[in-house]
Each structure stands twice: as structure tokens, then as C-alpha cells.
Design a protein that fits this description.
The complex is a heterodimer of chains A (about 475) and B (about 200).
Chain A (H helix, E strand, L loop, with lengths): L28 H13 L5 H27 L14 H12 L1 H12 L5 H26 L25 H34 L3 H10 L7 H34 L11 H27 L8 H31 L3 H12 L3 H13 L7 H4 L2 H28 L14 H24 L5 H6 L9 H5 L5 H13 L1
Helix pairs in contact in A: 2-15, 3-5, 3-9, 3-14, 4-5, 4-8, 4-9, 5-6, 5-15, 6-7, 6-8, 8-9, 9-10, 9-14, 10-11, 11-12, 12-14
Chain B lengths: L4 E3 L12 E8 L2 H13 L5 E4 L7 H5 L6 H24 L4 E4 L1 E4 L13 H27 L23 E6 L7 H10 L4 E6 L2
Parallel strand pairs in B: 1-7
Antiparallel strand pairs in B: 2-6, 2-7, 3-6, 4-5
Helix pairs in contact in B: 3-4
The chains are: A mainly alpha (about 475), B alpha+beta (about 200).
Chain lengths: ~475, ~200
């Protein structure tokens, strides 16, 4: 194990002409493998893992119960009423799809921009994406009411001799979210294959060897394979980049193409995408902070990584704040009576408390990230990321419920109050997410081993350490010179 | 240079003599493997490969690996996805004719919210999603297929030393079926490239 700890080296600042190291305290590739595989190879995970798993598992059991209750009784068990036909279900759907955006952003867009720091966090951000999209998919699935007819969503010949209506954004959503899930899963798996081969080669037990061996597909690090692999990875990144921007745009079309005041705005697609990245990065910080503490990954997910993520949160938080302001401006500037009312009602109507929770969590708190002290303080960033998570949940609630509850005719106005089933389903989704994520932490390498090795200075064949000395002494020389670089 | 350890064949004495799969040479760092790959390439070997824990920059050129045609194939798949998306939507929502697609199915020209039967702009999102879906699936599928994976077993896996190819060591393997492969000469070639160790691998 490494003897140099993260706090000894500050890699959060940039010295002009020199690159701050992304990997601290590891002087050779073998140490990196050891550090990343340790959580998967320890006999027992830390106590905190068991506690979190227990809580999550209870929430999942509760989810199973409320979903069955819903299916056997009907959607009337939710607090939906005549004007408010979408509430917690769609709020949770949009929230989870949004969370899912950070993973693909980190893996695809930052890859295209050659942001090497992504290698420390891309694996579990991608895992988070997949689990978040699973949670998201749950809600429209159970919201259709008669779940046994959910296949009507797909263009499959059915007993009515009818086809889905392809001019509806709701159907675009079906295609967008399922494509997104498939492509994210592929991206994640392709990245995992070389690391699974590492796990296979290190496995002590027969079962582990078989399981990791099966899923690593017989990968043997062949350079002829790496060549096609890198091409495929680049192509996947290029394909996922427009995809990730399209998914939340399509989700926003569900609202924007309707005639409802508060929904019918052209700003929605970019505003939703910015919000999705904002909430997704907050969730990555929420997960990364405890994970790196618990599993000893501080030298690989360094303060620099967290600092960078907090900068992304700040930028996207400003975009979201701008969008909130612009919505109000357009509502006034358009002169549309209903539009004006919808926004005044949001800020001062029956759900004003939700609106102000949203504004304070999404616009005000991220502004603290202007200060480097806050961006590099572990407890502060953890608390702020939780605020952002809460704020983004409320954003979707505000958009959906306030617009529906007070629409055109005052006689049809109503109020949405969540029932225990609504709340149980929402908590259950968090449990499902937690269980999947904790299992991932236990059984799969949390950091992309081969990618992290690839961004170490030692990975470069022209690295000075390889040419100063040869043979047996080279590792020691490498170690020495790698440390020298930090100072 | 470290000691050149050479294990000649496997010591297990089986009834039939094991066939030689090839030789594996171990290198300690990326600089060594790139230099060695250039030399092996220049000696004219064909059935050989480098094995590294991560893609090493410059190794493709050092080995003389040809650029893959994968992107062209993915483009074709993407175009097929786009066409499928358009065809699916036109058939199901714009026209009224019957085709056989495993069962007899008939299209239904929905007229919704005043949009024309051929409302291409409304069909764009699904066309786009299917383009991405087809491209991504074919990209990953073809990449593994062209790499000859999944292939869970390979004689190289019988070599204990080779396990470090996924950790921190760099290997060159030269297969015995190569026309230029002569056990002693190839071994000498690998050693002259600065291999830390050369080991024979047998087929099993």
C-alpha cells in the first residue's frame, strides 16, 4: 500500500507549464491495481456498508409492497386528482433520469474534450447512471395503470390492431430512455471488460475466477484488440454525446409541447439538460465522498477531482438559476395572461414553499462554490451536494404540480397531497438505487483500472523515468522521479 | 538488464508431447515494449501480438497495426437505424397497407392534432434514437467480433507469468504457426529486444 497520503500533496492548483498529478501516492501500476481491487477482494466490507445495505434493502422491500399494492388496487392509491394527473411519479421519473445524466457526461463528453481527470470517477458515475435510469424506468412503468398492458408502448402488433402514436413526445420518451439505458450499459460494460480481466487474473477463489472470467470475455490485453477497443470507445463517446443531450430534451418535450402555462416554453430543453447535469454531478459528489473515505480511494479520487466536479456544479447551477430568471422574464414579456399567472402562482401560490426550497437549494447554495475553500472542503461539499439533490427534486415537483394544479379555469383547480403510497414509492426508489450501488461497490472495480493507469505519467513510453536507467533499477527510479514531480 | 530466465517448455510429462503454442516475452515498462515491438515488426513476424494492461501510445505504430474499418461499419449500421426509424413510423402512422413481418400487419394513418400524414419533423426524434441505438449496438458487437471475442480460453492463460499482463507487465507473444518462427532463433530475437524473461507456452 502507498505510504504517501493525499493531504501531503495539494493537486488542486495548477502551476503553469506543469500538470498537477491525477494519481497521488502510487508510484507503479501494481499499486493502482491493488488499491482499486481491495474493496472487491476484502473478506468483509466495512460495517458502514452493511448498515447502508440494510437500510436500502428495507426500502426495497417497502417498494415491493407499495408497488404491489398499487398494481392490485389501482393508481387511485396515489394522491392524483383531476387537474393533477402527474405528480410524484413523474417528478421521480424526471429526477432519476436527470441524475443519470452525469455518468454519460463524464464518460462521453469529458472523454471527447480529453479531460483526463474523468478516469478517476467515470466508472462509478456510469454505474450510477445505469442504476438511476433503472429507478427512472420504474415510474412510467407503474404509472400506466394497467401494467400488464405496458407493451402497448412499443410498436408490437397487439389485439387492438393499433400502433403507438409516433407524433407524441411521450412515445419519443420511450425510445429515448430505452436507447439511453442500452447505450449507457454498453459503454459501462465495454469499459469494464479489461478491468474484469484484471479481477479474473487476480481472483483467488474458483467462483470469482469463473464469474470474472465469463464476463471479461477472454480479454488478454492484446494490442490488436486495444486498437479496435479504443476506436469503439471513441465512437461510443461520440454517439453518446448527442444522445445524452437529446434524452433530457425529449423528457422536456413531454412538457414543452403541451399547451399548459408553465410548461409551454422553448427554454425547456437546454434548461432541463443543464439541470440534469447539475443534479447528476451533485449525486456523484454525494456518492464519491463516502466511497473514497470508506474504501481508501482518496489517492485516486483526489481533491482535484472533487474540486472539478464542484466547478461543474457551480456552472450548471448558474445556468439553472438563469433559466429560472428567464422563465419569469418571458412570462412577463410575452404578455400572456395565463403564463404570467402561472409564474406568480409558483412563487407566491399554494406551493410557494416548494418553489423557495427549490430556489434556495439550486440557485443560492451552489454560489458558495465560488470559494476554493468550500470546493475543497469535504464536509461542506457533501452537505451542499445534498442540498442540490433536494433542490432538483423540488424543481421537478414545482414544474409539474404547480402548473397542473392551477391551470386555466379556477373552477377546476385543486391541490395535490401525496399519500403514504406516493412517499413509500419515492423512498423505495432510493432504496433500489442504494442496493444496486452498494452491490456494485462490493463486486466490481469502482474505478477504471486500465484508464487510470493510462493517465499516469509512467504510462507514456517517453516518460523520463524509463530512459534514465534500465532494468531492475527502473522501478525505483520511476518512484523517485514520480514523487519529485509533485513537489 | 535483469537476469534472463528461460523456462524451456513445460516440465509436465504427458503421454503425447504437448504442441508448442508460442513464446511469451516479458517486459517491464511501456518504453521497453514499444522499442521491442519495433524490432519484432522489422524482423517480419506476422502472428505476434503485444499484451498490455492499458493501451500504450505509439504501440500501434510500432507494431504496424492497420487502422480498423470499424467506423465505416458503424456508419452503415447508423444509416440502417435511421432508415428503420423512418420506415417504422411511416408504415405504422402514415399509410394504410399490409405487409408480412412475421405476422400480417397493417399500417394506420393516424391524423392527430392537425398534423399531416407525412409529418417528418415529428418523426425525427425516434429516427435519431434508433440511429444511435443501432450504431452503438453494432459498434460494441463488431468490436468484440472482430477481436475474436468472446473466447474464454487461450493457451496464454496457462502461463502464470502472463497474469501480470492485466496488472503491471508488458508482454510480446509470438505464435509457433508464424512462418518465421524457429524456437531458438525467435527466443534469441526476443532476448535481444531486452525481454526480462522468455517463456514457452504449450497448447492444451
Amino acid at each position: 500500500m502507498s505510504t504517501i497520503h493525499a493531504h501531503e500533496i495539494d493537486n488542486t492548483g495548477d502551476v503553469p507549464g506543469k500538470r498537477a498529478p491525477l494519481v497521488l501516492g502510487h508510484t507503479d501500476f501494481h499499486q493502482v491495481t491493488n488499491t482499486i481491487c481491495r474493496p472487491n477482494e476484502m473478506r468483509k466490507p466495512p460495517m458502514a456498508w452493511y448498515i447502508m445495505f440494510g437500510i436500502s434493502m428495507m426500502l426495497v422491500m417497502n417498494l415491493g409492497f407499495v408497488v404491489h399494492y398499487l398494481i392490485f388496487t389501482g393508481v387511485g392509491v396515489w394522491g392524483l386528482n383531476n387537474p393533477v394527473m402527474w405528480a410524484f411519479d413523474i417528478t421521480n421519473f424526471v429526477f432519476w433520469v436527470g441524475i443519470g445524466h452525469a455518468g454519460t457526461l463524464i464518460s462521453a463528453i469529458l472523454f471527447l474534450f480529453r479531460q483526463k481527470w474523468r478516469t478517476g470517477i467515470n466508472r462509478f458515475a456510469e454505474a450510477m447512471t445505469i442504476f438511476a435510469v433503472i429507478c427512472a424506468g420504474l415510474f412510467p412503468g407503474i404509472h400506466v395503470g394497467r401494467v400488464w398492458l405496458a407493451y402497448w408502448l412499443f410498436p408490437i402488433p397487439n389485439q387492438m390492431d393499433m400502433w403507438p402514436q409516433f407524433r407524441s413526445p411521450l412515445l419519443w420518451d420511450v425510445f429515448a430512455v430505452s436507447t439511453y439505458f442500452t447505450v449507457s450499459l454498453l459503454f459501462w460494460y465495454v469499459g469494464l471488460v479489461p478491468d474484469l480481466a484484471t479481477m479474473r487474473d487476480r481472483a483467488k477463489g474458483k467462483v470469482q475466477q469463473m464469474a470474472y472470467g465469463l464476463f471479461s470475455l477472454g480479454w488478454r490485453g492484446s494490442n490488436r484488440h486495444w486498437h479496435r477497443y479504443e476506436r469503439a470507445y471513441l465512437l461510443l463517446a461520440a454517439l453518446s454525446t448527442p444522445l445524452v443531450l437529446s434524452v433530457h430534451s425529449v423528457v422536456s418535450f413531454d412538457f414543452a409541447t403541451s399547451q399548459l402555462p408553465g410548461w409551454h416554453t422553448t427554454i425547456f430543453p437546454p434548461y432541463f439538460v443543464a439541470g440534469a447535469i447539475f443534479s447528476g454531478f451533485a449525486m456523484v459528489v454525494t456518492l464519491a465522498v463516502p466511497a473514497r473515505e470508506l474504501f481508501g480511494l482518496k489517492n485516486l479520487i483526489t481533491l482535484r477531482h472533487l474540486d472539478n466536479m464542484n466547478k461543474v456544479i457551480l456552472v450548471t447551477g448558474c445556468m439553472v438559476g438563469y433559466a429560472y430568471g428567464m422563465e419569469f422574464f418571458i412570462a412577463w414579456y410575452s404578455g400572456a395572461l395565463y403564463e404570467k399567472f402561472a409564474f406568480m402562482n409558483r412563487a407566491f401560490g399554494q406551493y410557494s414553499w416548494a418553489y423557495w426550497i427549490m430556489v434556495s437549494c439550486n440557485v443560492i447554495t451552489p454560489q458558495l462554490f465560488w470559494f476554493k475553500k468550500v470546493r475543497t472542503s469535504i464536509p461542506l461539499m457533501f452537505i451542499l451536494s445534498l442540498f442540490v439533490n433536494v433542490g432538483m427534486w423540488f424543481e421537478r415537483f414545482v414544474i409539474i404540480v404547480t402548473s397542473l394544479a392551477n391551470d386555466f379555469l379556477p373552477s377546476s383547480w385543486d391541490r395535490f397531497v401525496p399519500t403514504w403510497v406516493d412517499i413509500g414509492t419515492m423512498l423505495g426508489a432510493f432504496g433500489l438505487f442504494g442496493v444496486l450501488f452498494l452491490l456494485f461497490c462490493r463486486f466490481l472495480p469502482m474505478i477504471a483500472i486500465s484508464e487510470v493507469k493510462g493517465v499516469m505519467p509512467q504510462a507514456d513510453p517517453h516518460w523520463e523515468g524509463w530512459h534514465q536507467s534500465h532494468g531492475a533499477g527502473s522501478n525505483a527510479a520511476a518512484a523517485h522521479s514520480a514523487n519529485g514531480e509533485h513537489s | 538488464m535483469t537476469t534472463l530466465t528461460t523456462q524451456t517448455g513445460t516440465s509436465t510429462t504427458t503421454a503425447a508431447p504437448a504442441r508448442l503454442y508460442g513464446l511469451v516475452a516479458e517486459f517491464e515498462n511501456p518504453a521497453q515494449i514499444v522499442a521491442a515491438a519495433e524490432k519484432i515488426r522489422d524482423k517480419g513476424y506476422r502472428y505476434w501480438d503485444c499484451h498490455t494492461p492499458f493501451p500504450v501510445h505509439g504501440l500501434d505504430k510500432a507494431m504496424g497495426v492497420q487502422r480498423t474499418i470499424l467506423p465505416v461499419l458503424v456508419f452503415v449500421a447508423g444509416a440502417a437505424g435511421c432508415t428503420t426509424g423512418l420506415g417504422l413510423q411511416l408504415f405504422t402512422n402514415s399509410f394504410n397497407f399490409t405487409i408480412w413481418a412475421l405476422v400480417w400487419v397493417t399500417g394506420y394513418p393516424f391524423l392527430i392534432s392537425g398534423k399531416p400524414a407525412l409529418s417528418i419533423p415529428a418523426f425525427v426524434p425516434v429516427m435519431f434514437e434508433l440511429t444511435i441505438l443501432f450504431s452503438a449496438l453494432s459498434c460494441v458487437g463488431l468490436m468484440f467480433l472482430m477481436n475474436g471475442l468472446p473466447k474464454l480460453h487461450n493457451p496464454l492463460f496457462t502461463c502464470d507469468r502472463f497474469r501480470r499482463a492485466s496488472d503491471d507487465r508488458f508482454f510480446i507473444s509470438i505464435e509457433a504457426r508464424d512462418p518465421r518462427f524457429y524456437r531458438s532463433k525467435t527466443e534469441a530475437d526476443l532476448k535481444s529486444c531486452g525481454a526480462a524473461a522468455v517463456e514457452a507456452v504449450v497448447e492444451d
